[in-house]
Amino acid sequence: MPASLVTALIGLADDHLILGHRLSEWCGHAPMLEEDLAMPNIALDLIGQARALYSYAGELEGAGRDEDALAFGRLERAYRNLLICELPNGDFAHTMLRQFYFASFMQLFWQAAERSADATLAAIAAKAVKEAEYHRRHCAQWVIRLGDGTDESVRRMAEAVALLAPYTGEFFIVDQDICDVIAGGILPDTQTLQPAWQADVEQVFAEARLVPPKDVYAQKGGRRGVHTEAMGHLLAQLQFMQRSFPDMTW
Amino acid sequence: MSEAEEIPLWEVFIRPRNGLAHRHCGSLHAADAEMALQAARDVYTRRGEGLSVWVIPSAQIVASDPQDRGSLFDPAEDKIYRHPSFYEIPDDVGHM
Fold this sequence. Notes:
The structure holds two protein chains of two kinds. Chain A is mostly helical. Chain A has one domain: Ferritin, core subunit, four-helix bundle (Ferritin), CATH 1.20.1260.10. Chain A is 65% helix and 0% strand. The longest helix of chain A has 29 residues. Chain A is globular. The relative contact order of chain A is 0.15. By secondary structure, chain B is an alpha+beta fold. Chain B has a single domain, classed as Ubiquitin-like (UB roll) (Roll), CATH 3.10.20. Chain B is 22% helix and 21% strand. The longest helix of chain B has 12 residues. The radius of gyration of chain B is 20 Å and the shape is flat. The N and C termini of chain B lie far apart (55 Å).
């Protein structure tokens, strides 16, 4: 069990680190000052969640890898994040829709994980669920306003829906490497979260006057370390400092 | 039309603790009330400043005209007897 739990924790932590990094790229570039604070706020929440998960994974692994070693010291194939997290930001509509999809999913995930058989994970979930709830709320409001907004925002939102459609299926594909973690009641079975997530998306899309995508092929591979072209570029930026000056602190 | 004209301005009030009043802490731009409340949370409560947030459209605030300052406020200047400083407080009372 510990080995598969470490694998599961690293995958979950990678989702949060990589998406948090993507979101942090908006810092100083947001369309308005208020969002220039809101997006890095969300990014910091995600990176904080990643830290808690990496630290716990390192502790369970017992191989001397701390949160920094796990976050910055691995090769691309060792990262197990969902592909949706590593996609380039695109425009503001694309970023907000992706963030809404992820936050809606994670809110359900953490709600279920609050009942985890593992006390540390239950505690991480109890803190993270409040953060995810706010992220979902904030991003849903933007999806609604852009989806039901001006000609330009409607067009951009519809493009974002089409671009992201192949990447939401991976949320609900159960990673075969961590089946015993799910069976042991330590982490939720993401497959069971799909109906609630679908209902949440449909409700927000209805208000946003957006058409939900149907029957789109689900891209997968992130959980096995098979990434998109964007991942290498992201890691080059993310790891540069630790690769150049190993173990540096500031 | 400039962005400032399209996106309304809101005034933000934060209540830092139970028992204290909401205090004005700044302003921000937001399309509507819901977004203004979220922006206020993100802009003004990042360091644990608040337990409660109010946002009010700046356009709804009725302000006194600076030109009226003389007639509104100067008459209070020579009425020093309105300050509660003309009686002695016994030592036993301590700080009030």
